[in-house]
């Protein structure tokens, strides 16, 4: 555990030692605001909730999370620090988990900084703050899912641009898994059971409930197990880079 | 302390390291020599637990790197090739991170850092981001990292590569000062370095050991071992050459400049006395005489022809 925390602290330090953290947070906040007010018609809806805010999070994350995740492993390989990290007395999983945790907490910080929108909706109306909290928790878990995918993809390549592009593609697919576009493509190729299984993997399906304030254990378990699965895949990818 | 047991690594169909076996004891400094691509770095990466061996293993203080990598990594201080470090950290934050990962207690950390900073002369750059440091300082940060937990086994991949002569000397002195109570492996392709710091030299080529011994022993394999270098008056150079070529202990004679000659010994035996006697008989005056020890360069070139083989293959195709 202490090894994970040590890696976590180093990574956290690395975010704020470069402009990366500040640029990411600013872009995230601006985009979230623009989408909420213009695309989501937050004010015109005249509803005391944050659906207009949360509904764009999957799309925001599809683009922005791979931008954070792309460096996680590709950069270590590029810097040569991969060799240093993996010859220190820690296991590859401790390194994978520590790095993931730092990125996840970092997106949590960015998400928390959207609190003015919560103040706004409380000033304008009388929203159900429990629902909003559920939305925030759901959004954070979803971000974790995207991050775990992005971190895994980053371990597959030493090139950060490739890691980004592949990350966006992967994240897009899991987001759209339940949509007619993807399902239509697959109909006729795979059985109905497979179709409903793929549809059930969609991030949007699981996030929609959470966003509306329904903390269904199944949705939380879904994101948690997805994170764990991809972190294990990530560990395997790191091991593979060592020729294991 | 270091025990390498039939260590082998394949990259696809290419065998980078081929059943390497040797051991290094406390107090030994092993110089790992070989042309680029001979398998030096790959071997070190396997010993330190970064790359997994295809077969065979390495044991450090009795711990098998395949079965107990964490104990092995605890026991080793490792300077990877190019001394990588996170560019955004400062040396002090970097060393603190290493101390935490290596579970050095809070009280000990400051002491350990102060000690390696002193040894590697990092005092002036402790708070500058590593990416702004010169190559020499980066290398020293990497060394400090490897020495922080005072490891019993030290493995360094080209520790002096890219340093200026003063820095090279500092690093060599540092390695020598630590050699008594550690087992050290240093890879290099600077041959004079081996003569200075290593108690044992190993030349590897295409993943195999082609020579292993004290640097003097390897030098003795050079064709110049026990050769006699002479200086005579310019008008006598030709005369001396003829006389020496006639001697049965001399294999061949090379001319050096206007006045110098080098007589290579048959079978590398000592030939100083017969050479001087031979010239003395003809009343030929020698101005300067020197017996050569031999050069590691020659041995190295004779033993490591892998580059040339590759080249031949390519031409044949």
Walk me through this protein's architecture:
The complex is a heterodimer of chains A (244) and B (317). Chain A is mainly α and 244 residues long. Chain A has one domain. Helices cover 80% and strands 0% of the residues of chain A. Chain A has 15 helices and no strands. Chain A has helices at 2-17, 20-39, 42-45, 51-54, 57-69, 71-79, 81-86, 92-112, 115-124, 129-154, 160-176, 180-186, 192-200, 203-211, 217-241. Chain A is globular and about 55 Å long. The two termini of chain A are 24 Å apart. The mean pLDDT of chain A is 88. Chain B is α/β, with parallel strands linked by helices. Chain B folds into 2 domains: 2-219, Rossmann fold; 228-292, Alpha-Beta Plaits (2-Layer Sandwich), CATH 3.30.70. Chain B has helices at residues 40-47, 69-75, 91-101, 106-120, 135-147, 165-178, 191-197, 215-219, 237-246, 272-281, 296-303, 306-316; strands spanning 2-11, 14-24, 29-33, 55-60, 63-64, 76-79, 153-157, 183-187, 200-205, 208-213, 228-232, 250-256, 260-265, 286-291. Chain B has a 6-stranded mixed sheet, sandwiched between helices. The radius of gyration of chain B is 24 Å and the shape is elongated. The chains are: A mainly alpha (244), B alpha/beta (317). The A-B interface holds A 2-3, 6-7, 9-10, 13-14, 17-18, 79-81, 83-84, 86-91, 239, 242-244 and B 9, 11, 45, 48-52, 54, 70-71, 73-74, 76, 78, 80-82, 84-89, 93, 97-98, 100-103, 129, 145.
What is the topology?
The complex is a heterodimer of chains A (244) and B (317).
Chain A (H helix, E strand, L loop, with lengths): L1 H16 L2 H20 L2 H4 L5 H4 L2 H13 L1 H9 L1 H6 L5 H21 L2 H10 L4 H26 L5 H17 L3 H7 L5 H9 L2 H9 L5 H25 L3
Chain B lengths: L1 E10 L2 E11 L4 E5 L6 H8 L7 E6 L2 E2 L4 H7 E4 L11 H11 L4 H15 L14 H13 L5 E5 L7 H14 L4 E5 L3 H7 L2 E6 L2 E6 L1 H5 L8 E5 L4 H10 L3 E7 L3 E6 L6 H10 L4 E6 L4 H8 L2 H11 L1
